[in-house]
Amino acid sequence: xxxxxxxxxxxxxxxxxxxxxxxxxxxxxxxxxxxxxxxxxxxxxxxxxxxxxxxxxxxxxxxxxxxxxxxxxxxxxxxxxxxxxxxxxxxxxxxxxxxxxxxxxxxxxxxxxxxxxxxxxxxxxxxxxxxxx
Amino acid sequence: xxxxxxxxxxxxxxxxxxxxxxxxxxxxxxxxxxxxxxxxxxxxxxxxxxxxxxxxxxxxxxxxxxxxxxxxxxxxxxxxxxxxxxxxxxxxxxxxxxxxxxxxxxxxxxxxxxxxxxxxxxxxxxxxxxxxxxxxxxxxxxxxxxxxxxxxxxxxxxxxxxxxxxxxxxxxxxxxxxxxxxxxxxxxxxxxxxxxxxxxxxxxxxxxxxxxxxxxxxxxxxxxxxxxxxxxxxxxxxxxxxxxxxxxxxxxxxxxxxxxxxxxxxxxxxxxxxxxxxxxxxxxxxxxxxxxxxxxxxxxxxxxxxxxxxxxxxxxxxxxxxxxxxxxxxxxxxxxxxxxxxxxxxxxxxxxxxxxxxxxxxxxxxxxxxxxxxxxxxxxxxxxxxxxxxxxxxxxxxxxxxxxxxxxxxxxxxxxxxxxxxxxxxxxxxxxxxxxxxxxxxxxxxxxxxxxxxxxxxxxxxxxxxxxxxxxxxxxxxxxxxxxxxxxxxxxxxxxxxxxxxxxxxxxxxxxxxxxxxxxxxxxxxxxxxxxxxxxxxxxxxxxxxxxxxxxxxxxxxxxxxxxxxxxxxxxxxxxxxxxxxxx
Lengths: 133, 584
Prior knowledge:
The complex is a heterodimer. By secondary structure, chain A is mainly α. Chain A has helices at 2-40, 46-55, 61-132. Chain A has one domain. Chain A has three helices and no strands. Chain B is built from 21 helices and 19 strands. In chain B, the strands form four sheets. In chain B, strands 7-10-9-8-19-12-15-16-18 form a nine-stranded mixed sheet, with helices on both faces. Chain B has a six-stranded antiparallel sheet with strand order 1-6-2-3-4-5, with no helix packed on it. In chain B, strands 11-17 form a two-stranded parallel sheet. Chain B is globular, with a radius of gyration of 27 Å.
């Protein structure tokens, strides 16, 4: 009977200990994540960031999850905007590179033609002069 | 704590996703574009067409480049707009979040302490001083002048759950001090700046003591009551002071020499290598604001080497056993061993403990490490300031139009590669500090894609910063962190102040991505024409510039000039003034 009771007690104790451990681990993880999110958020001024960084130590886990969600949404949205900007800039750059190469090629052709034309004209003039002599 | 940016991770993932979506098509970033432009320029150079036609080709290319810059600016503006919309939504959500009673209670009590951080720090140091000196009358008088509500401190101790007797005691003071101090850790990262951390706290202490000094000068209180007692008079918190070692620890207090003459300035006589401040002269030096400024300057310029001043030791701002934990240290050139809360070394057979006036280094003969940033900050003296005002009259005239009285601004002297912090006063302008910087490699100019530093009036539009050495891309802090700050790759590091042109000629500066930023190639770049148009500074300097910009409520104006000026010597200026006076 005694051993039966002790087994129950130990089982309950272990259960409570695991429960407590999981709670602590969960909160620690959320806190670490929140610290990272708070460090890179741009929606809060520096003093406010400081206040939040300190305040999260005293807030219950549900509130922390809520705050994490808000800040994660910001991080995702900003990341999306950044990625879009990178993509759009890359497109412009690519367009520019293609156009500029085309421009250099065409200009080269155009200018070589102009130069050949002017050389030919000069040669003809000289020939005319020679003929006159 | 390493600040791993979640944002950085997300961007990286997104970038990868974009690359995965379009196999074979690489993103053309600025770097790739630059290399392609160089290749094109080479192609034009090698072209068989005549020189005049080459110029025409370059001109056409420039026109296209300007059009591209406009497109990029439009994209950037569009992204900025979207970004602001997101921020507005998040701020609304955060306001709703803060309105919840359990959150409101905590935030309301904690937030005022960060808003009035400097005043609270001063109050904390005054209260620490009160505990040590028992000079209640003087301290209460000074506390009243700071405008700190005592009830607020009582409220915060309720939130922190300490000292339930409702009084502000040493535990509360320590808790608040740690809380404010921990913010410095968060901003810089723990291992990022073992020196900067001490330095910032020391700065706060210095400001506090200077403020006390200034305030107390006209008062009739005798000087003896103002001076904090020597460290041996036991600061109350055992964990926070290096001097609070176990009472059984042996100590050999040095002999106190006779009080020095009032007219002497011991620091003025000391050579630049930094002879030790001793018990004999420290009292005299620290008794004047100028002396304290000189001590501060010495600590700032020591770059990894601390000369412990009395204030720093007393207020526990510099804790050598914390700074150099798990590392051997050299105190006054002698190797010391950690023991208990302090460091001890053998001197003539008897162990001695680190004390104020001691020089603490982490090597016997100190050579700079790669991860140590070069501090180029110098305080401009009154005479130098006058000469500089004379030399930069034209530039100051431009700044005067924009800045309000009391505002600070920056003046970049492109010719001598110096940046000055200037302050507008009711009487004129004062040059406060100078830094060594780098400017654009090809020189100065406003053309898009020219890699030249734009001239004229600018203002700081966007700021961003991470722990020292962290890489910044697109004005966002990345996870990557540079360990070699002196001779590393020249990335944008630590902090950026993105500049916006205020004149029609430099309107494109923001679109061109002109920043004031730290670089990981300090040794190669500083003092030279080396950048791609930005103003490069050292990593430690850009931190103070960032802090200055963030502190200032009004716009931070930056004037960049490439005018070569020769500031007159102070004697020339004095002579000119004398002539003026005589003529009048």
